[in-house]
Amino acid sequence: MNITTNKIRQDFLNFFKEKKHMILPSSSLVPYNDSTLLFTNAGMNQFKEIFLGEKKIDYSRVATVQRCLRTGGKHNDLENVGYTSRHHTFFEMLGNFSFNDYFKKEAIEYAWELLTSKKWFNIPKHKLWISVYKEDDETYKIWKDIIKIPVKQIIKIGDNNNIQYNSDNFWQMGDSGPCGPCTEIFYDYENNIVNNPESFLENKNHRFVEIWNIVFIEFNRISKKKIVPLKHKSIDTGMGLERIAAILQNVFSNYNIDIFQQLKQHISQLSKVKDLNHTSLQVIADHIRSCTYIIADNITPSNEHRGYVLKRIIRRALRHCHKIGMKKQLFYKLVSTVIEVMGDSGKILKQKQKKIEEILKLEEIQFSYTLEKGLKILQHEIKKAHNNMLSGETAFYLYDTFGFPIDLTADICREKNIQIDLNAYELEKSKQKKQSNINQKFYKNYNNITINNTCVFEGYKKNKTKSLVKYIFINNQSVSIIKKNEYGIIFLDKTPFYPESGGQIGDIGELYNKKCYFLVENTKKYGNAIGHFGKLISGKIEIKKYINTKINQVNRNSIQLNHSATHLLHAVLRHILGEHVYQKGSLVTNKHLRFDFSYQTPIEISQIQDIEHMINMYIRHNILIKTQILSLEEAKKQKAIALFDNQYSSIVRVVSIKNISIELCGGTHTKRTGDIGLFKIISYSSIASGIKRIEAVTGQKAIDYLHQKDNYITDLSLILQCNNSDIKDKITNLKNKIKNIEDKIIQLQQKENTYYITKLLKNTYDIKGIKLLIHVFNQYEHKLLRIITDTLKQKLKKTITVLVNIINNRFTVIIGVTKNLLDHITAIQIMKMIVEKTHTKGGGKKEIAEGGGIYTEKLSIVLKNIPLWIDEQLDKK
């Protein structure tokens, strides 16, 4: 029964192919058209719209091996990875699905045959236990009477806290929508006989490991207490490949299956650790798989969204590499082993191997310095931790300064039995967040609307329609009427308004008739429905009434110019920089366009100019922009670019600009490139490692931008009193003059420092053989105060210096203490006393500390009392 993981994967697909299932490829780890998910975390994700009844599929029986990632939200396995035998970030989910085809009996029979048949997995029947929803008698009887499972091995799972349908064996997509009971199959890892359900429940997830979950989607949840039967029933199943491989390969831990064994052997060769069961080896083996597949799906490390999840995983892996002696850039060398061990599943990685390795190597180089420094600080703070609690301020400091994600800090603390003050951490983090403006709050309130409506978009050919009002929402509630001065969302049966999608902002315009006027401020998509956001200016609008629609055509035209220019930009970037350029995001508005793309090296100004030149050349050629509705296969034959590895339907919309640009796109475009008029790049930046951003303007906005630059240059020439062509030389001469003046100032200040130091040496206090110097400067250079402090400490054998500088009603203070006094008193002690008395801020080390704040008379009083305070501190010693 010892077979490879790759064969298990293929046997699963072969079995369901024999059962007349269509074998579909895994979807991307980046979920298509689902903003609720960061990454695909289950096999059903790519079929979500089908379960919701929003989309039809050509096949009623489907089987897949889905690539999944669980690192956040409900399914957050990151913190457990490496410490348990079955948690992973990346894993493969084996699944079979039925859409209004077979149901409970067949689904259970298929699962049982695959698991127990000698032809297939041949697992002994007595080793398998079943759980069912307590109220699901039909499923219970199928297992008992048809499959002939002993009653003692069928466990009924009831509702939690006596709340109906709130059960581990009742699956639901959300607070509303498709749901239903499920049955789970468990494998018993031990041989001694268990005769009661209590023993099963006590040993669930340890001795008894869930291997397959079969969900019967037969209801629609209307509310917390109400569910109704669905007209069409479905099956959704999931079985973790790694778990079933562990069983068939006779190992208890997933990390001991063939795939992980090979990975751990390679890691062991690169490190000082030879124990293949070492926690760090398991963490690294898991994380290299995740990183490899995430990058293959065109995600790169960044500080936001999916890129940040990738960065967290990489940095956690690098910390464990560092821990076991892999301190050089070695992590990326594991990519080749991932590709090798993953078999057919790894084929998608091969062509992107070089890119994956380069990104991982670069991230390791960038993090290596801060990792070393951050670890030293963390280890120091852990030693000082009170009550085994690391302060939230320290955790945030590591996150903010050294890029330590909180789960990385928690991982290190966990090994030392230290907890983190997460409340204080979140408090520190919240201080950096900006308040959302009123409009953002308004729109955010409507993100969770679920509506069963289809709106026909007619905006490709029309800018106005006569439409039927289907739904109205105010304050997240469905209403029948909206009145004057009320904000809300109106849903129609058809509309010319383009909903925000694919980076293109939503249309604005108006809904009206003789008795009312509704100003549309934005348009968004809700499944197959389109919501018109705005305010009713006059009259009233009721559902089931007709209304006229009209988009703001000027606004739409500006958006279209920028959208078509974005396609040209994408094509030209790939032409000039290389076809490895890949779009990472875009924003198309009526004012400008923004385009993010993957590119590892800096872009020269000459290349930016070449990009502008080529795009404007295509604009001058006035090329016809075509849109076609094609099958996905036809689009692929035309080599159309499909962005973000999205999952597309079998029929797609293709936007073509001659043979220059061919892309799948649902947005609106101008008719010819000449309509764009002019293209001008206004900024170029690097927003993350390997991610570049270009912002540009077109048409009249581009002309306005050039006029602004002309005005700016003219103003500069007037200020500098020279011609426009002489501005550069004039500024260069001024810089040289300023440099000469600054050098002279420094020379004068150094002379002044010598004078001050000579004078200050005569004004010291003597306290028990220690020299104390306190002096207040006005409008003095702060850097020079540090020089004075260091010089005084060198000249005086036992000395404490307190130098204050007052500038514009604020003060700074530098405190110095010579090394031979540190056993008696420190700079940080004196600083803490000043901070407490003046309610300001400060910090530092034993030998030198700095602080400051708003100047008040309290500071003068504190300075006068310092000699007495120091005397008291010395007496205590």
UniProtKB/TrEMBL annotation:
BP terms from Gene Ontology: alanyl-tRNA aminoacylation; negative regulation of DNA-templated transcription
Enzyme Commission identifier(s): 6.1.1.7
Molecular-function annotations in GO: alanine-tRNA ligase activity; aminoacyl-tRNA deacylase activity; ATP binding; tRNA binding; zinc ion binding
Enzyme class: ligase
Catalytic reaction(s) noted: tRNA(Ala) + L-alanine + ATP = L-alanyl-tRNA(Ala) + AMP + diphosphate
Role summary: Catalyzes the attachment of alanine to tRNA(Ala) in a two-step reaction: alanine is first activated by ATP to form Ala-AMP and then transferred to the acceptor end of tRNA(Ala). Also edits incorrectly charged Ser-tRNA(Ala) and Gly-tRNA(Ala) via its editing domain.
HAMAP family: Ala_tRNA_synth_B
Name by which UniProt lists this protein: Alanine--tRNA ligase
Source lineage: Bacteria, Pseudomonadati, Pseudomonadota, Gammaproteobacteria, Enterobacterales
